[in-house]
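I am writing to request your help with a piece of structural work I have in hand. A protein sequence and the structure tokens that stand for its backbone fold form the material at issue. Please examine both parts with care and let me know of anything in them that strikes you as inconsistent. The record follows directly beneath this note.
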Amino acid sequence: MTVEPSLRPSPGPSSVRPSPGPSLRPDRLRHILNELRFEVSRETVNSGTMTGEARLTPFMHAPGTTHLRTSILIVWADMLSGLLALAGMRPRVPVTLELDVNLYRPAPGDGPLSAVGTTVKRGRSVQVFESTFAGADGVPFAFSTGLFMASPDATLLAPTEMDSMPAISSAPALSVPLGERAGLVRVAPGVARLPLRADGLNASNTLNGGLIGVAAEEAVLSLAPPGATVSSLALRYLSPVRVGPAIATATGADGLYHVEVRDAGAVDRLAVLATARTF
């Protein structure tokens, strides 16, 4: 991973008004996350469950390890839960409030992965979902919980079909490490920067919440001992990253870390608070 020690995060919020964000629209055909090739079955969505599967490759590994990046599980949990939320909230667009993932042991790094997303509660304002992940042996090694609500922007309308599924099945497989593909840079120990690009947006034209998790994980790993992987990661989404880049800053020690993710182009507005533990 590229390191740029000369760069530092901005000092924090100020009275300066944020500059307008870039005129971007989601590029679903070339979206970064399509290249992870996580294919979801919609057969049981009406019953409140969905399944997904992928094949793990070295390009998905946490830096310096042979284990899957924990933040990729956040990405896939967000996808499963978001599609289940979409089925219950359409025509409104669901947005993520909280998302976590917890591992019993370090994630596998190769072979097939299977996942099951389940609806826990369909509330009038907040919906709750769980996801479990298993490796080639079929034994779960991680679980996730996600909270979603309908976007307050009623002008955003959800697609009538899961039009991203064909894009995933036809996308090329990831051919470089995920961090490199996303433009993720370690700015300094404990600090990672992720740009806002058309191939990393969500349906609200803001930075994909799963990719924010990748930035948070990278900030943690830059402080953790070499070879460490994240055993749990919890994200609380406070505000979207509309301008970018997203700057993730981690503090902590002894396996426990606190992370702030800010929208540097929007006067360092706080976007996500996260906590993480490492193996």
